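Forum > Structural Biology > Help requests

Title: Can anyone predict the 3D structure of N-acetyltransferase domain-containing protein?

Hi all, first post here. I have the sequence for N-acetyltransferase domain-containing protein but no way to get a structure on my laptop. I'd be grateful if someone could post the structure tokens.
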Amino acid sequence: MTMGPICIKNELKRKGYGKILLDYSLQKAAELGCGALCFEGNIDFYGKSGFRPASEFGIRYHGLDEGEDASFFLCKELISGYLDGVTGEYAPPEGYFVDEKAVEEFDRQFLYKEKKTLPGQIFS
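Reply #1:
Sure, ran it for you. Structure tokens for N-acetyltransferase domain-containing protein below:
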């Protein structure tokens, strides 16, 4: 299973809300029977909830050669041993990719709004 990203408003960061939201999401995923979660993220944050580099589980990130830095690609077993003996390549779900032309066409249906890239935003 994959999920994310988890986003917290700048003025509410560093108050524990992100970890609460993440841990709640992990609990719900476990209740649904999910054995493991893999996604892109910062180990400094997600590591506090038990995530480790996916390479430790033998899982590579799509499009990267073996040994290439994929420290952003994380994994956590929700069922101990669920990934034992598993190796392979993770590819982000198709729904994660955006057709920029389709977005522009969609946006034209609404009143104009200036698009901005804010501090801390990964993608513009």
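The mean pLDDT is 89. The first strand starts at residue 36 and ends at 40.
Shout if anything looks off.
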